[in-house]
Design a protein that fits this description.
binds zinc ion, 28 helices, alpha/beta, binds glutamine
Length: about 750
């Protein structure tokens, strides 16, 4: 029999039940038992849902109260020493302290650093290892969840993050390679596997996504050592699970490891099946990741069947598993509840539940069950209506794309000419001050937006409200003495949603939540069709703000790559093409802002770095189109209009050349938390344009004083010329209060003045 399964299921719940259970626990409204009960109910509901949708067996231990990498670190006691007393005393409180930090009863512990899980929009906590890190089993979460599943009648497969991928995701506080800890870690993995076997687990899914990355010789050796050691223990069968890309050069390594099964990603690595079949040792089970675990479209089942038949022919039914490409953590749970969507469009979607149903259809078709035929036919119909739909394919957009000339990505003149024209128009002092766009989103602002959305506040009243907020914000900035002002972004809920709602080709779900980290979820827009801009999106409020001041005002747009990156995108054309369409829509907006007399326009690209492919060989092509798209949007501006961009993430030293190629006149970047570490890149690379290294960490309630900011600016002056430096916070101020904003910006303006005087 062919086995249908999944590699992991969303934890948060269709109605974000886990979020609410966590947050009420953190507030102290509910006790630990209430939280455990809510978590157990979710696990049970999700196992049942998966079985009912057609899965033959289900994963367990894929559930987490916060993050599965943190769970792994916690389980092996790979936690910094200063958390231990708290963890020993109250494991749950200790666990959440690692996730979120804690400040009470004389305890003051920072949260672990958080970073992106491969190239997804999920964030994991980075475990910190000491030089002589020791490990031991703490608790028995995988065993307990296995037994819990069994008690509910599910023969579940515990999921563990594999030892090599786990260590590669850790960091050593002394900067050494975390893989050095492997020998000490392996006995604890072995002990855990033995326990799982004793508990009755037949299979364990051991996730090694790092097998799809570029590996050096040390990593390859680590893989061999690790799996040889685990092979020597009395353990369940291991399904070595790889995802997020093809194995490529790591295929011989993956095939040689002594395990009982191998899972491969056939969505991102659809070309690898032949090679994998050729290298697969006899007896080994192959799990085919046929259905996209990271996107929300129905699968082309006929195409998937071709691959599956090929594998079936070589392996036979008993050696074949069908699964999504990766965990379903990255998609929402059920498309059928999206009753407000156009039913035709809804019919093109497959969330977690529908994906399992698709796998069932594939398995039934492979087993020649007659019932599969009708389902396959329905899938074909959905596929072909989508392919032919006029909602998806729009002639005007196609024509514009074909006519797109490389010149469109070129500003009229080179930077030195632009700089002179912009300076003549703006007359800015040295060290000009500005902000990144948003000002505090107070409860009042959020309430008004919610009331407007629900119809309780009329359009006219909402507009009046926004006009007042903007006027007050402009006055505030003038009083503080900033040089380039903004309107404050009070009308925006989210920097992608605000634009997506106004562009053609986007839809929004009601419950399409995906976990971003911990209890935080996002509801990414779905780009389903050709993108265009029916009407101006930001001109009204930007123009209004400019009309209130004689200081230059900076218009705010979200860049094409960021909009793409934070949405579910079409799978029927290259990402680069979708991005170009968004870029053209934004180009029209830039042209309209320009025509409205706005002298500076900021196109935010905080997600540009995130889109970087996992493999080095794929990066140049990505950077090329990503940069081109930014330039297409920006190049509608005349020379005298100053184009800004903004990025916030920790490391951009490695893409500095691409950042320069974006050809923005000014870039603002997050630097204050890293104490300007980013500037190291400028020692060797001479960034040619202007740059505002953030001097105020807006993520923290701390207000730095002028001396602290001055110290940062002096650091910047060591590698940049005075005429290159801007003075601004790290990012938007929307999460800060007005008091904090006022206090910090006063200090910032003072720091800039001191810098000017010192010239
Ligand atoms: N302009 C946006 C803001 O200030 C930028 C947000 C971001 O970089 N994430 O809020
Ligand atoms: Zn930012």
């Amino acid at each position: 029999m062919i086995t249908v399964t999944t590699l992991g299921f969303p934890r948060i719940g269709a109605r974000r039940e886990l979020k609410y259970a966590l947050e009420s626990h953190w507030r102290g409204d509910t006790c630990a038992d209430d939280l455990y009960t809510a978590a157990r109910e979710l696990r049970h509901r999700h196992w049942t849902l998966q079985r009912d949708a057609g899965a033959d067996n289900v994963p367990c231990n894929d559930f987490s109260l916060y993050d599965h990498v943190l769970d792994t670190a916690f389980l092996f006691d790979a936690v910094p020493g200063d958390y231990r007393p708290l963890i020993d005393n109250d494991p749950l409180a200790g666990y959440f302290a690692l996730a979120r930090g804690v400040q009470r009863d004389g305890i003051d512990l920072h949260a672990l650093e958080m970073t992106k899980w491969f190239d997804t929009n999920y964030h994991y906590l980075v475990p910190e290892l000491q030089a002589e890190q020791t490990f031991r089993l703490r608790g028995d979460k995988p065993v307990a969840e296995f037994l819990e599943a069994r008690a509910s009648g599910f023969d579940a497969r515990p999921v563990l993050l594999g030892p090599v991928s786990f260590l590669r995701l850790c960091k050593r506080i002394d900067g050494a390679d975390p893989l050095h800890a492997l020998e000490r870690l392996l006995p604890v993995y072995a002990e855990l596997l033995e326990k799982l076997r004793q508990a009755g687990a037949e299979w364990v899914q051991i996730d090694e996504p790092c097998l799809t990355l570029d590996l050096n010789a040390d990593a390859a050796t680590a893989y061999r050592r690790a799996y040889a050691a685990l092979a020597a223990t009395a353990r369940p069968k291991l399904m070595l699970t790889t995802y997020f890309g093809p194995l490529d050069a790591n295929l011989p390594l993956a095939a040689e490891l002594p395990v009982e099964g191998l899972h491969i990603d056939l969505v991102r690595g659809h070309g690898q099946l032949g090679d994998v079949l050729a290298s697969l040792p006899p007896e080994r089970i192959l799990s085919l990741g046929l259905i996209d675990g990271r996107n929300i479209w129905r699968t082309d089942l006929d195409r998937a069947l071709i691959l599956a038949r090929h594998a079936l022919h070589r392996l036979g039914q008993d050696r074949l598993w069908l699964a999504p490409s990766c965990s379903l953590l990255h998609v929402p749970i059920d498309a059928s509840t999206e009753t407000r969507l156009d039913p035709e469009l809804r019919g093109w979607l497959a969330f977690a539940r529908q994906k399992i149903e698709e796998l069932r259809i594939l398995a039934d078709a492979l087993e020649e069950k007659p019932s599969a035929q009708a389902a396959l036919q329905a899938a074909r119909t959905a596929q072909s209506t989508r392919q032919q739909s006029k909602k998806v394919h729009r002639l005007e957009v196609a024509t514009r794309m074909t006519a797109l000339d490389p010149v469109a990505a070129q500003r009229r003149s080179a930077y030195p000419v632009r700089r002179e024209r912009q300076q003549a128009r703006l007359s800015l002092p040295y060290y000009p001050t500005t902000t990144i766009g948003s000002f505090p989103q107070t409860t009042e602002v959020r309430r008004a937006r919610a009331q407007h959305k629900s119809g309780k506040l009329s359009d006219a009243d909402y507009d009046m409200f926004l006009a007042k907020q903007i006027a007050a914000c402009v006055r505030f900035q003038e009083e503080i003495g900033l040089n380039v002002l903004v309107h404050g972004e009070f009308e925006r809920n989210d920097m992608v949603e605000y634009f997506g709602e106004q562009l053609d080709g986007f839809v929004f779900t009601r419950n399409g939540w995906v976990q971003s980290y911990g209890s935080r979820c996002v509801k990414p827009p779905i780009i389903y069709g050709d993108v265009s801009r029916p009407r101006p999106m930001t001109v009204h409020w930007t123009h209004y703000a400019q009309s209130l001041t004689s200081k230059p005002l900076k218009g705010m747009l979200t860049g094409p790559v960021t909009i793409l990156q934070w949405s579910f995108v079409r799978d029927d054309q290259p990402r680069a093409d979708t991005c170009r369409q968004i870029a053209l829509a934004l180009r029209d907006e830039v042209a309209d802002l320009e025509a409205a007399g706005i002298p500076a326009i900021q196109i935010d690209e905080p997600a540009l770095r995130e889109g970087l492919p996992l493999r080095a060989a794929d990066r140049p092509a990505y950077l090329e189109w990503a940069v081109e798209c930014f330039r297409i949007a920006a190049a509608a501006a005349t020379d005298a209009t100053q184009i800004h961009t903004h990025m916030c993430y920790a490391e951009f030293n490695d893409i500095i050349a691409a950042v320069a190629a974006m050809d923005a006149d000014v870039i603002s970047i997050e630097t204050s938390r890293s104490r300007m570490e980013l500037l190291d890149a400028f020692v060797t690379f001479h960034y040619p344009h202007q740059i505002g290294p953030g001097v105020y960490d807006i993520h923290s309630p701390r207000i730095p004083d002028r001396h602290e900011m001055l110290a940062l600016l002096r650091k910047a002056s060591a590698v940049l010329a005075p005429e290159q430096i801007w003075v601004n916070p790290d990012c938007g101020l929307k999460t800060r209060s007005w008091e904090e904003t006022h206090a910090a910006l006063v200090e910032m303006v003072a720091a800039a003045e001191t810098m000017r005087r010192s010239l």
